[in-house]
Design a protein that fits this description.
Blueprint (H helix, E strand, L loop, with lengths): L4 E3 L1 H14 L9 E7 L2 E6 L13 H15 L3 E3 L3
Parallel strand pairs: 1-4
Antiparallel strand pairs: 2-3
Protein name: Protein YciN
InterPro entries: DUF2498, YciN_sf
Length: about 80
């Protein structure tokens, strides 16, 4: 297994949000606002485009899939530094 790069939340969020914007399934307003690490998996969080009742909209699955993509893409490469 290759060595993971230690990275700050701030720097990882900058990289993640650039990746989101460059992705073909980017939706205006899609953005990761937080990331945490659980059992070596990076979990990205942000706005899910919920409606006034807090229910999913047609955009919600795209955000969920993007955050899943980021977890898959970055969990093998990075680990969060202790803050």
């Amino acid at each position: 297994m290759s060595q993971k790069n230690v990275i700050s939340k701030r720097d990882l969020l900058m990289i993640a949000n650039q990746t989101i914007q460059d992705h073909e399934h980017y939706i205006e307003g899609m953005r990761a606002t937080d990331v945490e690490e659980n059992n070596e998996i990076l979990i990205f969080k942000g706005h899910y485009f919920l409606d006034e009742q807090g229910l999913p909209t047609t955009k919600t699955p795209a955000v969920f899939n993007m955050f899943k993509y980021l977890a898959h893409e970055f969990s093998d490469k990075f680990t969060l530094q202790n803050e």
